[in-house]
Design goal:
This protein is an alpha+beta fold. Helix content is 37%, strand content 20%. β10 (176-185) and β11 (188-194) form a beta hairpin.
Length: 491
């Protein structure tokens, strides 16, 4: 994929104006876009607009389009509000290095059939903030044709809600065969099913499931819940609940069209609809029974929040608000070559780079030969480097985006890499050795980010580093042993 020019825009107005040209492309994390081929005109970079933050107020979350999937995963407020459903929806997507680059804007604007992210946000009361068209519901947006608008933010309204996210994959980190999110709030109870393989859609939950879920919510806090009341509501009877979930899931399955592709047949997907909806309903019931209320005490949560209603505002009024907030502050000129200054392995480095040069090519040109390219499709993790201390895929990032940042490769982390590398060799985790530079870089990031990770956390962190020889057990052992050594444990 080639770009003639690159521009870091100063305003949404500027981005929108440039985006009216057919040959222009707005850059999210660029991970999906770069899988395409072709010569494009101007790459429009939104990363200077402060849209890389998640703001939380009493009424809503405002999620900028440049927020990464990893930021979503680590945001405590979002996890508390969704009871970890958001984390569950993104944690299987390729690897940590990938999720440090992929953006919410690119994921939602792309409206991909396989999208875990779209499925998840459709289950919440989510609006998109478009420039210049204004706000609309995510559900409406997801069914619309692509326009040249700029997606500025997602707005998730807070309610007293419960939600559960589940997906099925043939192998870890692969695209999902089916995605499923189920949620209940005062606006209704819905199931969102995606990767059918078509784009996710919202379906109302069948009445019997809603009634059963309501009975869980009406039972009162655990200490005030007499057994008798539970029994009367039929809620202690697991078999009874299972029957209700099964009927509801079967009713949904007949409404949801599925088809076949390389990941699964239509029949398998229909079967998965039944299985995942059933499991999600039971998990949702358990959540409601424990009086989960978006991570807040019920009184706090319902105190005024649920009465918030912005629906009376028209789309045009909202559009004006966004425009007023984001006026042009002078346009930037798209350039085919750009000067950048970064700190590379501790040294201030200035260079002039072509608009479409990847960070990988930039680093190799500067003799950082530890950085290697395995797949060139954002899958293998071999090209991992640290950007401001976080692991990213250098094959999937533009060099120009490192301007003003710190990049570390193994050349700059020799001591740390050698020290850990000895443990990798001792545990037989280095066989052909091809994957090692990327794995070691990601392990260094892991040691910095997680103090005492569990085996599951280690495996999840390293999931984006493919190894064709070792079976990953040796790598997990090496990390465990290295941590013991660093903690001074000798036996
Ligand atoms: C190998 C691979 C595996 C993946 N696996 C999964 C998976 O299992 N589950 C899943 O949910 N997703 C998966 N994805 C998708 C991924 O999570 C992202 O959704 C995808 O990469 C798009 O995000 P991005 O930031 O890279 O967007 P980009 O690739 O930069 O952009 C995607 C499109 O959106 C446009 N765009 C981006 N931002 C904006 C904006 N603010 N306004 C207007 N237009 C915009 C771009 O012009 C482009 O057309 C996978 C992607 C890849 C490459
Ligand atoms: S992920 Fe970059 S080369 Fe494979
Ligand atoms: S050791 Fe051969 S690919 Fe990992």
């Amino acid at each position: 994929m080639k770009f003639k020019n690159y521009v870091k825009v100063q305003s949404l107005e500027e981005a929108y104006t440039l985006n009216q040209k057919k040959s222009s492309r707005v850059l999210g994390g660029m991970l999906w876009m770069r899988l395409g081929h072709g010569q494009f005109g101007t790459a429009i970079d939104l990363s200077g607009l402060g849209l890389d933050e998640i703001e939380e107020t009493a009424e809503e979350f405002r999620i900028g389009c440049m927020v990464t999937l990893r930021q979503l995963e680590l945001h405590e407020g979002l996890q508390a509000y969704t009871k970890d459903a958001i984390r569950e929806s993104v944690r299987h997507i390729v690897g940590v290095q990938f999720r440090n680059l992929a953006t919410v804007g690119g994921s939602i604007f792309g409206r991909f059939g396989f999208s875990d992210v779209l499925t998840m946000f459709l289950a919440l009361d989510t609006e998109v903030e478009l420039y210049p068209s204004g706000r609309m519901s995510l559900e409406e947006f997801s069914q619309e044709k692509r326009t040249n608008d700029i997606l500025a933010r997602l707005i998730v309204k807070k309610h007293r809600q419960s939600c559960v996210y589940l997906s099925q994959r043939n192998t870890k980190t692969d695209f999902p065969v089916l995605t499923c999110a189920v949620s209940v709030d005062e606006q209704g109870a819905r199931a969102v099913i995606g990767a059918t393989p078509a784009r996710a859609r919202v379906y109302p939950l069948p009445e019997e499931a809603v009634q059963m879920l309501e009975s869980a919510g009406n039972l009162g806090a655990a200490e005030h819940r007499p057994e008798k009341q539970l029994e009367d509501a039929g809620c202690l009877d697991t078999a009874e609940r299972e029957k209700v979930w099964k009927t509801a899931a079967a009713k949904l399955a007949v409404q949801i069209p599925t088809s076949s592709n390389m990941r699964g047949s239509a029949a398998y997907r229909t079967h998965l609809v039944k299985v995942l909806v059933q499991r999600a309903l039971e998990a949702l019931w358990q959540q409601k029974q424990q009086r989960v209320c978006g991570g807040m005490a019920e009184a706090e949560c319902c105190d005024g929040v649920c009465q918030q209603d912005e629906k009376s505002q028209t789309r045009d009024e909202r559009s004006v608000q966004i425009s007023a907030n984001m006026t042009a502050e002078g346009a930037s000129v798209p350039q085919s070559e750009l000067p950048i200054t970064l700190t590379l392995n501790g040294k201030r480095t200035a260079a002039v780079v072509p608009a479409d040069q990847t960070l990988y090519d930039f680093l190799r040109e500067r003799n950082c030969y530890s950085v290697k390219c395995g797949c060139d499709t954002s899958n293998c993790g071999l090209c991992t480097v640290l950007l401001d201390g976080k692991p990213v895929l250098s094959c999937s990032m533009l060099a120009v985006r490192t301007d003003g940042h710190c990049v570390d490769t193994m050349e700059g982390l020799q001591e740390e890499a050698e020290e850990f590398g000895r443990f990798v060799a001792l545990q037989g985790a280095e066989q052909c050795g091809f994957c090692n530079p990327g794995m070691i870089m990601n392990a260094i990031a892991l040691f910095r980010e997680l103090q005492d990770p569990t085996d599951e956390e280690i495996q999840e962190y390293l999931a984006g580093n493919l190894c064709r020889c070792s079976g990953y057990e040796g790598q997990t052992r090496a990390i465990r042993e290295f941590q013991r050594y660093r903690a001074g444990i000798t036996n």
